[in-house]
Amino acid sequence: MSKLKIVHLLAGHKWTGPAEGVVTLCRDLKNRGHDIRLFCTPNPRRLLADQAAQRGVRPEADLWLDPKHPIRTVLDIRQLKNILRQERPDILHLHLSTDHWVGALAARWAGGPTRVLRTMHHPRSIERRPFRSRLYESLTDGFITLCERDREQLQRTYRMSLKPVAVIHGAVDTARFHSDVESRLARAEFGIKTTTPVIGMVARFQPHRRHDVLLKAFARILKQLPTARLLLVGRGEHQPVLERLVGELGLEPRVIFTGYRDRDLPQMYAAMDVAVFPASGTDGSCRAALEAMAVGRPVVGFPVGALPETIVEGITGHIVKEESIEALADCLSVLLSDQPRLRAMGEAARKRIETEFTEAARLQKTEAFYERCLSPFGL
User: Fold this and answer.
1) pLDDT interval class at 279 (50, 70, 90)
2) 363 close to 252: Cβ distance less than 8 angstroms
3) Is 378 a residue whose pLDDT tops 80?
4) Are 139 and 101 in contact (CB under 8 A)?
5) What is the pTM of this model?
6) Strand partners, 165
7) What is the pLDDT of residues 110-166, one digit of tens each?
8) To 5 degrees, how large is the angle CA 151–CA 102–CA 79?
9) Which of 155, 177, 181 has its CA nearest to residue 166?
10) Which of 237, 243, 321, 334 has the most CB within a 10 Å radius?
11) Sign of dihedral through CA atoms 146, 168, 150, 379?
């Protein structure tokens, strides 16, 4: 396709939620020869900005993108309007509610050919709220959702019959997360034998991530598999609460808080026999589940976010539809007792990632959607 001018807005400065996916998409679009500009929220800590720079994308700080300051929002709209009038980009790609309002209003007042698109990174962004109808139905030209369920909900909730809506799944770096990652060093760090069954979860410690459900299920699993271990990878304000729960359940020797891991995150997945996700988090693509599958680990989760479309039931893992402690414990106990099945599921998980969830596949689908939206017959 022809080279495009594309502006991305992301109202955030943390390296969490959709940030990594947005930045790596910008990197890949840039490497394809497109003219890419990324604006994010300025912050002295530069968490997102530094990570983006390491990937060859330097975010610009000309916009505040701060939902807590209405005056700054007005200034952002005015500033972006001027940028759009001067640059006349082909695509204005928006990602969160704050940048959606700023971008959509600026584009409307700027006029010109720019198509306004929004990726819906979480089901909450689809729920009907005051004023969203005008934003979605009148001020936005097209939408991307991360799963078919969200696409259907978006089209049921708003009048989308004449707008292009594409499903573009999340993606994972298959060169970094792969099935040959060594597991022995990570297990040795925590004193876990190679034959010990290990359950793992990678997620920030927040109440909505439902670590407590997994801990209570793990307590039941230990009755059948007393040598099992549980790795909880991450950090967050809810950790003291979870540590107290571990004590109350008598799980201290068996539950390991690994802390935040970055460079050796693939090794953390490799140390697990199965990865568990009771919630989707702030990124509806369930990126951590994709990373676990890329390392060749089966995934067990509740029917949330993109998980029902990511996991092939009984082939790459399991969806526990009952969403109960008992059902989760039973599922994991059976799975951990069958090592040949675990290995087969892990191999199938890796193959599924290679065919459906690569960064190259996401890039190709995104470019195709841009082209569709720019076509005079695409809207």
Assistant:
1) confident
2) no
3) no
4) no
5) 0.93
6) 143
7) 999 999 999 999 989 999 998 999 999 999 999 999 999 999 999 999 998 789 999
8) 145
9) 155
10) 243
11) positive
Helix%, strand%, coil% for the chain, nearest 5: 45, 15, 40
CB distance 157 to 127 below 8 Å: yes
Burial (CB count within 10 angstroms: exposed 0-12, middle 13-18, buried 19+), residue 124: exposed
Q: Cα dist. 124→121, 127, 237, 242, 322 in Å?
A: 9, 5, 22, 26, 22
Helices (H), the chain: 19-31, 47-54, 70-87, 97-110, 132-137, 148-157, 184-189, 211-221, 239-248, 265-270, 287-294, 307-310, 325-336, 339-356, 359-374
For residue 262, the tally of other CB atoms under 10 A from its CB is 7
Residue with tokens 């209003």: 105
| Mean pLDDT across 186-192 | 95
CB 289 within 8 A of CB 301: yes
Q: With beta carbons less than 8 A apart as the criterion, state whether 154 and 123 touch.
A: no
Does residue 326 or residue 377 have the better pLDDT?
Answer: 326
Mean residue pLDDT of the chain comes to 95
pLDDT tens digits, residue range 346-355?
A: 999 999 999 9
Burial tier of 217 (Cβ tally within 10 Å: 0-12, 13-18, 19+): buried
